[in-house]
Amino acid sequence: MANPVAVKLTAKDFKSDQEVRWCPGCGDYAILAAVQQFMPELGIPRENIVFVSGIGCSSRFPYYMNTYGLHSIHGRAPAIATGLSTSRPDLSVWVVTGDGDALSIGGNHLIHALRRNVNLKILLFNNRIYGLTKGQYSPTSEIGKITKSTPAGSADSPFNPLSLALGAEATFVARTIDSDRKHLQSVLRAAAAHEGSAFVEIYQNCNIFNDGAFDLIKDADSRDEHLIRLEQGKPITFGADDRFSVVHPEGSFGLKVQEGGTAIVHDATVDDPAYAFALSRLSGSELTTTPIGVFRDVPRPSYDEIVRKQVLDARSQIDGTPEEMLNNLLNAGDTWTIL
Amino acid sequence: MAAPAKRVEQLDRVVIRFAGDSGDGMQLTGDRFTSETAQLGNDISTLPNFPAEIRAPAGTLPGVSSFQVHFADYDILTPGDAPNVLVAMNPAALKANLADLPAGADIIVNTDEFTRRNLAKVGYQVSPLEDGSLESYAVHPVALTSMTVGALAELGVSKKDAERAKNMFALGLLSWMYSRPFESTLRFLERKFAKRPDLVVVNKTALQAGWNYGETTEAFTVRYEVKPAKMRPGTYRNITGNQALALGLVASAVRSKLPLFLGAYPITPASDILHELSKHKRFGVTTVQAEDEIAAIGAALGASYGGALGVTTTSGPGVALKSETISLAIALELPLVIVDVQRAGPSTGMPTKTEQADLNMALYGRHGEAPLAVIAPRSPSDCFHAALEASRIALTYRTPVILLSDNYVANGSEPWSLPSVDELPDISVAFTTAPNAPDGHFLPYLRDPETLARPWAIPGTPGLEHRIGGLEKADKTGDISYDPANHEHMVRIRQARIDAIPVPDVDVEDPEENARVLVLGWGSTYGPIGAACRALRQRGLSIAQAHLRHLAPLPANLGEVLAAYEKVVVPEMNLGQLASVIRSKFLIDAVPFNQVNGLPFTAATLESMLEDVVKNG
Fold it and tell me: Taking every annotated instance into account, which residue ranges of this chain make up the domain Pyruvate/ketoisovalerate oxidoreductase catalytic (chain B) (predicted)?
């Protein structure tokens, strides 16, 4: 993470001069506004912030941020950002991606960035559909999903993005919702403070091809019964009068929701990813018990730091100008001279 | 009893091939013999030939690994067509290499391995040592394994360790035969086995025993000498193409004053470049072994975007995977060096065999109109300079550059006259640090009128925040644009800026200045083509030779050069890829001559082909 420098910026400073071209009503607008409003909090000069994206609706994001930005190719943003972050420790590098970009075509790069713990803040806008290609099912679409490419329903089981990230032993894993600006910003804050990869899944509504996908946990009349807000150090309860608890049944590997009982106390800093994984399994496609918040936040040296340290250690052996060192290198080994 | 004095014969050149099982250490043996030879001042050229399998079943034909070294008292261009001496460590090595030997060649065989079982493995019913089938050769049967074990008997080492040292016994014997001093090998063994002093003693003893055997046995009556070659004054080292290429990249970092970032995924025959560069972190070199070929180039491009010299190294299958990212680099107009160490394809093909069949892919293998610069080294040591040239073009013109090496130059070696660091080109470029438009805005696609390069404004530069990407960009502003006229303009300017890269004129070697036939090559065929031309000229025939380093853009004088000859012949290790370019660009009836057997051309093959063209048109 780049060193914060005292600069006073406002949300307006992070708006680029480009016209935003998502569909009216798209959840991406809310995320963009939330990110622009949050950015000044970082205290990092705009020039030291880079947004890197792949392909898809969400990946247009960098064009709208008045920072450095790179709109790359489908699925490859984590790989490109790895090169940038590793070679430029002074930068704050953010990856913006979607469920198709990160989990389908770019799945390999995502898991490897996470297992390496590259110092990237990865925002995955999950709308459970392909938007830019006009409505095919995605790797997070629910099984049986009827779309243009699956008129008889999709046959694929979806990924649970958080379970996947935790399987790769990501050091920071969180989930939030496009429409809950306060919560979204609290998660961004925690992600930004994390050294290493921070993986944030943002439930995002595609009002054209998959409208209402998250209504169960968004609508005022249903959300309280289905949304679980994780708070560090607090028992995990939800529902009217906290009538539901997340408990750890004796003899079970996982967690479950029940009425009453002793709720477990949330601790994102548990080193074993099994706990966060169990939390991630509370919700599937049906969203009936969906935790949001920071699932996991544990310290581990970042890849960038380890790689950079190797270079710095080697550079401490410098014994001359670069030209002198090069000359020694060329002349190393068995040489002979002809007069 | 004193050893009988041995006759010493002078030779002007020798080609030795060390052949054995892939576990027999033939590459190491050849490498050490080469190093000893180089220090004597002979000119040398080497060619390793090994299977892709790390350890194919022992004693079988697919498991045979060989290393050929050609050394001479004059300047040579190839590893030699046919060995004068074959060292065969087992029946498989004999069988696999016999067809390449001219009559009268010396064959040193390890008789201990000529057992009934080993003979049967390769289909010998009767030992070729006994059935008279080797009559036309000078066969020297040597019990290499048992003599090695005997020599090490007093050291109390395991039979396995003792037997493994038989390659050092062979090296000692050959070092004696050709009067090579082996002190540098003793030092090498001390370095290699620094953590196993027992193995230092074992190998040194075996080496010395092999030498002593040569000196005392009556089986070898002649010892040979090859006088130093007349080479230009300077300090030399023996170098492979992959090593030279890696050093050229380090030199690029030094001479550009930029950090070097290598993103790579292991692939034969390019991995040695990754290995070499990973040792040079003190030059500010960062190496990332990525999760795949795509990530490797992605990381390199990300580093270039951040102001490093981004490089990715691979072979043909890897370039295919990188193709989409190369197109992105073309759209972003960022520096990037893509090294393709070509191997025989398609698909996995023959990973340890050579070919030049990726030229079409380098020139054309991308979606859209996606031009870039392509260059190819002509010899192992030339890989150093080619790497610097690729970096220079990439940085100056903000473009991806494909460097087409191949397995032949990558693993072959030759003496390299070490360049003076101060005389290497300065390839530094300036980052853009201030707005470039009169109104104080920054225009990321406003071009330098001379180079047509766009500004390289790296993250961290205040006031120049901008967004770029793969979508078509409006001229100057870089904003997303679907405007038809703008796209037409951008497509044409991306081509124009590559076409406008100034590259040196191609030289023509036509000593008699009366040749009617020009032979045009590119890349690693330089050695065999040059040797064939020399041979023809020695026989009084005139032939002109031109060799391309720059394949895109082509040298400006090439059309003029081609037009000056009645006939243009283009030998390539593919089915005529450069020949097609020449035919289509210059509308001449260029004659392709092609070989795609995974092996480099021999000089003799080219000599006979060219002789026919020169004599019969």
Answer: 23-210
